[in-house]
Amino acid sequence: MTRIVGIGHNDGPSLDGGRGFRRYAWKKARKELIGARVPVEIVRLRVRRAQALGLAYPQYASILLGSGRDITGFLFTVGGLQLRLARELEAAPAVAEKLRRLEGAGRMALSPPEEPAEAFRAELEAATGARIEAAAPAPERGASWGLARARILAALAPLRLPRDAVVMIGEGEEEERWAEAARLARFLPGEAYFGARQGAGAPR
Asked: Is residue 204 over pLDDT 60?
């Protein structure tokens, strides 16, 4: 029977028959990934990499261990970006600054389902001053698992990024479910990545 695990789960060895060998194989693979003792130079490189991605080191290390891949992209939802609705799209200064400082990973966004994705991408770039490489429509609220997966993968397609190397920055249980459907590396709430929502205004 196929096991279904949640996003961020490291999918370690199961406890059914044959678990002895699987446990050995899992420990060996994990040791090869992180090493019995990680050299100080590697730790320093990882700390710098986490800083470039705008992540706390424990967040970065957890994702690295869970997926076995470095992060190559971020997929931002409207809620995750803490956007505000006004005459023009508004982003909190801290959000815009962090997007601009993000290095070494692609920036992708999900537009509201009813808005043209390319127009939203251009407006988001103008509002933040950060390069947004690709955008695609977000799944509609209540979308099926399959449709949510297809929409997320469509957002990744222009940059040809492996799904298990992309982190979604979103908001709420439904958006976390989208990330699970596409089997992304991790889902992080916008407040965990950008900090607490700042200023008044309704999310766009």
From this structure: no
